[in-house]
Amino acid sequence: MDGDESSHSTSPSLPPALESADVADWDVFELLEPAVQEWWLEAFGEYVPENGGFFTPPQREAIPKIHAGTNTLICAPTGSGKTLASFTAIIDELFKRDRDGDGLENAVYCLYVSPLKSLANDIHRNLEVPLEGIESIVDERGDSMGEIRHAIRHGDTSSSERQAMLQTTPHVLNTTPETLAILLNAPKFREKLRSVEYVIVDEIHSLAASKRGTHLSVSLERLEALVDHDVTRIGCSATIEPLSQVAEFLVGCEPSSEPGSAGSDFETERIPRDYDIVDARFAREFDLRLECPADDLINTSRDLVQDRFYRLLHEHIQNHTNTLVFTNTRSGAERVLHTLRERFDAYDEDNSGCHHGSLSKDVRHRVEGKLKAGDLDVVTSSTSLELGIDMPHVDLVVQVGSPKSVAALLQRVGRAGHRVGQTVTGRVIALDRDELLECAVMLKKAQEGFVDSVSIPENAQDVAAQQVYGMAIAEIRPEREVLEILRRAYPYRRYGDDDWEQLLAYLTAEYAGMEDRNVYAKVWRDANDPPDGEHHYPEYPVGEVLMGKRGRLARVIYMTNVGTIPDSFTCDVYTRAESAWVGQLDEGYLDTLEKGDVFVLGGDHFEYRYRRGSKVYVDRTSARPTVPSWYSERLPLSSDMGREILAFQRTLLEHYDEGGSSRIRAWLRQFPLDDSSVRAISRLFDYQIRYAGVGSVSTPDRLAVEVERDRDEYERHYYVHSCYGRRVNDGLSRLLAYRCAQEATADVRVAVADNGFVLSMPLNRKVDLEGILADLEADDVRPDLRRALSGTDLLQRYFRINATRSLMILKRYKGYEKSASEQQVSSEMLLGFAEGLEDFAVIEETYRELLVDKLNVAEVEGIVSRLESGELEVSRRLVDSPTPRAFGLATLSASDVVLAEDESAVLQAFHEHVLEEIGEGALATSSEDR
After folding, report:
1. Taking a C-beta distance cutoff of 8 angstroms, is the pair 298, 911 a contact?
2. How many CA atoms lie within 13 A of 652 on its CB side?
3. How far apart are CA 481 and CA 383, in angstroms?
4. Under 8 Å CB-to-CB from 22, ≥6 apart: which residues?
5. Which pLDDT does position 21 carry in this prediction?
6. Which parts of 610-700 fold into alpha helices (H)?
7. Do residues 418 and 390 touch, judged by C-beta distance below 8 A?
8. What is the phi-psi region of residue 722: left when phi exceeds 0, alpha when psi lies from -120 to 50, beta otherwise?
């Protein structure tokens, strides 16, 4: 060993006290190169008592696994150093390789894939700082070290920067899922990826449940097929469940035996590649508490609730350094900040800010910079600050209203106390009784380590169309290889032969009439010709079925239309009678509207009739709104949390039976709730049970339904207390509305919430809802829901999105960019034709996405099966006025942060009726509708 090499074997000198201490991660520390060790000690101190060693829990477990080349999913709270752990192990390996060999090649060794374009903060903290520090230490020692280069490449990277990367290639390339797909089809840069040995997928929890994640999973398999060695995959995730499923999504699958020819190996079992999981989700101490401004949110005046809410929020902000306030809508975030500045002199433009996706990039960056520097006392946000920037000074997170899942709660609250060892302080403030109940259950489950499960889309044909087209463009290859690459991606592990043939029928334009509508073949498939044939490819056997691209502009079309994030637009709203323009609606809001639904725009009430392209036609009405303005912005309550709420209600009824309200209050004091919350929840159920009986409360074994005759509106309302989460309720309500409309031969209006739904029809129409529920059969759920969706605006919108993802409609072509509203017009012209084709991939994918991903049809089938078997009983109550648990369903026009004046009056009237009935003891128990 020469002198230069021996200098590298010397570890940094440690204080004697540390050398003799029982350091839990000394063995991990010793894995690192001396220069890396020295940098770590300089950066983080010699010993972190709260960690029991040099590293945080996720770092302690992850670094050795990555060092050994093991595929690893690291799940840990924000600020616990999981991304730094990934980079440290990789930097250490690259530094060692540079020192021991002839330097690093001019190629990419590590891909860092993030869903965010704004990677600069993460990269600076986790990559640039370590690299600069280690290089400085090496220089001080007089050793030589080649540069470990890194660069960011995404859609905004200039052509000159892209060209420079070909000449001087970064060893660590930071990119997005969309840009990775482009790089795999870029002939020159594609070659630079053959050397990739590591892939880090950051924020994987935000990708797994979306088609963006599905797209990335196929890109990773295309990368795996490109290289001639194993690639170590590392996933960094905030709190998510189930970890094994997310890990398998990260690593992909291999066939358990050799695959055969294309289309013949679907029965081959696919098993996940090897992986390890670092589960440090609860490595930090959480101080969580639910607060409520009043113990009676109905009788307390709206002004007083507002006043107490803002005083409580003000106290929290003043008692902490930096406070981050999450609301459930963008308008809510703006309103909270505006009111704080209006009510208190302590807040101005210099020390407070608002951050959400609708604000300009400059405004967002200015707020991010000041937040990172600790210059803002308070920032309000909707969802935009859940990911991304480092917030070292935030020591309190306040969530206004329900975050709808434990995972979202922990992700948001985890922005406080931004390192392991600091307690994560979170306060949830509820202003609505239904959300108060949700939050109480959610915080208790969070304390117990429960996390809602994520649902990963499977067999998405639009993503498959895009990726198969990309593979065909990249090179001519055997069809079986293309199919096998697709099936190695976790979302396609069950992709059947029929699915493949359906996809190829679309991609090869087998359907008559497609080219007449400017939808052309994208690929060809054919058996390899003999040597004297016109299309012979000598590298493949004669008769091997090959695939390739069709069209001279294929590569340009693919590169300019790749990706899965749909464009959206606002629709102009016109009255049918006067053709008067009354305002605009966000397209996403139209997902929630069916013919006859009533909504508020500009303070007036309108009944939705139909849409043509980007124009919406309505009628003025005095009817009460059925779809609140915030509906499309709010995250839906997870079905897992819905089931937990049902279990909570069953346990609560047991306590009530044993000792009434006092027993419930004693039980609730075991939860992280303030006294107002305890009393409000106890009072809610006391009134509910005294007014309508125990049977009016849904449990895991009981579905409560109440029927109200609304003589003022001349309507009959069926309140279905299906606490299964909004997606399931959306599916179940559409199924029942479809059946009710058939039986009553009348329009049925539907209003859906997280804890149930309302079916409304004219008073002179009556249906036997119990009988309809009893007659449902699980086998009929999908076909009935499919028929219920046919012809809806929801189908039209999702067809447009999927047709665009499938490149049936091109967003960009020959320099022209087609707007989302123009895409919608094109899709409406294609929809009728497409629906007339048998097993057409884009239509089938549209129905699959709606039924499976949006309406959670599997859960609906499960509910119907339990109704069929008698495991789930239906309990029906007739009421003169809604029960307390139905107040939220009856007033779906509620605001998200502060109760609206008109809604407050309606709630008060409902409440007074309940009190009157309880006081007189005249409960409506008749089995006949009066």
Report:
1. yes
2. 29
3. 40
4. none
5. 45
6. 639-668, 675-692
7. yes
8. beta
Please give the torsion angle defined by the CA atoms of residues 774, 780, 781 and 782, in that order, rounded to the nearest 10 degrees.
Answer: 180
pLDDT for res 120: 53
pLDDT at position 627 over 80: no
Residue 570 has what pLDDT?
81
Per-residue pLDDT for 421 more than 70? Answer: no
The pLDDT tens digits of the residues spanning 50-88 come to 555 678 889 999 999 999 999 999 998 877 888 899 999
What pLDDT, on the 0 to 100 scale, is given for residue 56?
A: 84
Strands 276-279 and 352-355: unpaired
Residue 693 burial (CB < 10 Å; 0-12/13-18/19+)? middle
Rounded distance, CA 301 to CA 305, Å?
Answer: 6
The C-alpha atoms of residue 649 and residue 884 are separated, in whole angstroms, by: 14
- 3-class SS at 811? coil
When comparing pLDDT for 530 and 746, which is higher? 530
Comparing 46 with 398, the larger pLDDT belongs to 398
Structure tokens at 885: 């648990």
So what's the pLDDT on residue 902?
A: 62
Q: Is 172 exposed, middle or buried (0-12, 13-18, 19+ CB in 10 A)?
A: buried
**pLDDT score for 787:** 95
Contact criterion met (CB below 8 Å) for 749 and 761? yes
| Among 218, 253, 41, 222, CA closest to 134 | 41
| Helix (H), strand (E) at residue 151 | strand 150-153
Q: Is there a contact between 918 and 691 (Cβ–Cβ < 8 Å)?
A: yes
From CA 478, how far away is CA 185, in angstroms rounded? 17
DSSP state of 48: B
Query: Which pLDDT does position 19 carry in this prediction?
Result: 54
- Tens digit of each residue's pLDDT (9 = 90 or more) over 485-527: 999 999 999 999 999 999 999 999 999 999 999 999 999 999 9
Residue 10 has pLDDT above 70, yes or no: no
Token couple for 782:
């999908």
Looking up tokens 């500009």 gives 602
Per-residue confidence (pLDDT) for residue 24, from 0 to 100: 63
Q: Please report the DSSP string for 553-602 in residue order.
A: THHHHHHHH---PPP--EEEEEETTT--EEEEEEGGGGGG--TT-EEEET
Contact present, 248 and 454 (Cβ < 8 Å): no
What is the rounded CA–CA span in Å between residue 911 and residue 297? 11
Under 8 Å between Cβ of 121 and 372: yes
d(CA 738, CA 788) in angstroms, rounded, equals 6
CB 845 within 8 A of CB 461: yes
Report pLDDT digits (tens) over 423-446: 789 999 999 899 999 999 999 999
Q: Give the C-alpha separation, 465 to 460, whole Å.
A: 9
- In the chain, the N- to C-terminal Cα span, in Å, equals 98
Q: Is 828 helix (H, G, I), strand (E, B) or coil?
A: helix
Sheet holding 702-710, edge to edge: 749-753, 756-762, 715-720, 702-710, 873-879
How far is 789 from 787, CA to CA, in rounded Å? 5
β-bridge partners, 287? 425
The pLDDT assigned to 124 comes to: 67
Euclidean distance between CA atoms 805 and 798, whole angstroms: 10
- H-helix or E-strand containing 394? strand 394-400
pLDDT in tens, 91-122: 999 988 888 777 889 999 999 999 876 655 56
DSSP line for 689-751: HHHH-GGGS-BTTEEEEEEEEETTTTEEEEEE---S-HHHHHHHHHHHHHHHHHHHTS--EEE
Q: How far apart are CA 81 and CA 62, in angstroms?
A: 10
The pLDDT of residue 821: 84
